[in-house]
Specification:
CATH topology of the largest domain: Fumarase C, Chain A, domain 2
Largest sheet: 2 strands, antiparallel
CATH class of the largest domain: Mainly Alpha
Shape: elongated
Radius of gyration: 30 Å
Strand order of the largest sheet: 1-2
Structural class: mainly alpha
CATH architecture of the largest domain: Up-down Bundle
Order of helices and strands: HHHHHHHEEHHHHEHHHEHHHHHHH
Strand content: under 5%
């Protein structure tokens, strides 16, 4: 099939349309990867049975060799014949091994044991090897932006209106905190992904025939060999407990929402009438098919648009928590779309990273926008300073002066100094208070200090997690079979 004969934009535009992104996701995201992980679990099962003396080591060796050259296309062709996906997978393995080894393929397993364990392993490694490293890169990029601009004064905005001054670094530190907390949620959910090997109704009926004293011991050993763990204490239906995957999806969608919020903030700061952030473009990039002068914040708009598509998929994840009795097939189709959610999010993280690498704060416009409102934003520090010095009607007085200032065009502080009843209070001002009233751009509170504190907290957290992920890759990683 030609790439452009596919239906989903994930395939022809994002995953399939970006060679580097495709190469990084290919071992985990597509259906070929799903089949490879299923084969990997089947092979691990036979190896575990060999350790328990159920079958000879040669049987495990045969299966491990056999799965190296089973393509997804062959499994699907066999499924069309037998109308069962896992039995088709098993048949493809069995025809490549000796008759003596065939009885041990899929022995003691039910389909969900293999599928749910393979899915947990697949998603755990995708998050470890692609998603979290890219999020850490994004977090470090935001930390650099925040620290570099910790003292860069900028007008703050609430409800789309000029509020009081902040700093651009502090605005970025907000996202350092938000994305940092989502990284922790995603990593915790990744670690908690579980597999299972407990049989047709989850009660270890089959394994109790082999090891009646502790049938769950075989489950623990199989999952440990794959770098997974079972539910503890072990109790399930035929399906693995759905909550760990639900938690991972929630962490991803929650973080996706933070990216969408960041993208919105950035594209508004790029707007012509604000222009406090400048986006750099390539020499040959086109912004409009008819207006040669125009460029668009398309990277940030793309992230917002992707979020609109993938955020509602959380509803499907929640619905997949329900299954009748030990199991039904009402989740069999819907659960196949989880890789699209993870792929779409990974693409959005990559696109956000790329977009942030091309922006620059526009200090001149920040100063101009701040100056344009300096006559008015002084209202808050003025009322608070007057109140602190005992003036009884500080808020109402400053509110009326502010409205008079907007009506007459006379600066608020000039009007305030003309009021005789305020003169005694102005004489009480401390030097720092006078400085702020004379130059409201200095009314940034603890923005710079809090920016430094936020970044100093999250930087070592991310560095530590990066080291943990690398250590795990080296210790437990089995290269995904392709």
């Amino acid at each position: 099939m030609d790439l452009y004969d596919t239906i989903s934009p994930i395939d022809y535009r994002y995953y399939g349309g970006n060679a580097e992104f495709h190469a990084r996701l290919q071992p985990y995201a597509p259906e070929s990867a799903n089949v490879a992980y299923l084969l990997r679990v089947e092979a691990a099962l036979v190896r575990m049975l060999a350790r328990w003396g159920v079958c000879p080591e040669t049987a495990a060796d045969e299966v491990e060799r056999a799965i190296q050259d089973i393509p997804a296309s062959e499994v699907y062709e066999e499924e069309r014949r037998v109308h069962h996906n896992i039995r088709a997978l098993v048949n493809c393995i069995r025809k490549r091994i000796s008759p003596e080894s065939r009885p041990f393929v899929h022995l003691f397993a039910t389909s969900a044991d293999i599928m749910d364990t393979a899915a947990a392993l697949r998603y755990k490694e995708l998050v470890r090897d692609v998603l979290l490293p890219d999020l850490i890169e994004l977090e470090n990029r935001l930390i650099t932006l925040a620290v570099t601009n910790a003292g860069r004064a900028q007008i703050g905005r609430t409800h789309g209106q000029h509020a009081v001054p902040t700093t651009f670094g502090y605005a970025m530190a907000l996202y350092v905190s938000r994305i940092g907390s989502r990284i922790e949620v995603i990593e915790r959910a990744r670690r908690n992904l579980i597999g299972q090997f407990s049989g047709a109704v989850g009660a270890f009926n089959q394994l109790a025939l082999l090891h009646p004293d502790d049938p769950a011991a075989l489950e623990r050993e199989l999952l440990e060999s794959l770098g997974l763990k079972p539910a503890e204490p072990s109790a399930s239906s035929q399906l693995v407990l759905p909550e760990p995957l639900t938690d991972l999806a929630y962490g991803v969608v929650s973080c996706f929402s933070v990216l969408a919020n960041l993208a919105d903030d950035m594209r508004h700061l790029i707007r012509s009438e604000i222009a406090e952030v400048v986006e750099k473009y390539g020499d040959d990039e086109v912004g409009s098919s008819t207006m040669p002068h125009k460029m668009n914040p398309k990277n940030f708009e793309n992230v917002k648009s992707l979020w609109k598509e993938f955020m509602p998929r959380m509803n499907t994840i929640f619905m997949d928590q329900l299954s009748e009795h030990q199991r039904d097939l009402t989740n069999s189709a819907s659960s196949r779309f989880v890789p699209e959610l993870l792929t779409g999010f990974c693409y959005a993280v990559m696109r956000t990273n790329d977009a942030l690498s091309k922006i620059e704060p526009n200090a001149r416009r920040m100063d101009e926008n701040l100056e344009a409102s300096s006559r008015h934003v002084v209202a808050e520090p003025l009322y608070i300073i007057l109140a602190l010095h005992g003036y009884p009607d500080a808020y109402d007085t400053v509110m009326h002066l502010s409205r008079e200032s907007r009506k007459t065009g006379v600066a608020l502080m000039e009007l305030a100094r003309q009021k005789p009843e305020l003169a005694p209070y102005f004489k009480k001002l401390a030097p720092r208070e006078r400085e702020i009233l004379d130059d409201p751009a200095k009314y940034t509170g603890a923005a710079a200090e809090r920016t430094a504190a936020v970044c100093a907290y999250w930087k070592p957290v991310c560095d530590s997690l990066a080291r943990t992920l690398e250590t795990e890759r080296q210790a437990l990683h089995r290269a995904p079979l392709t």
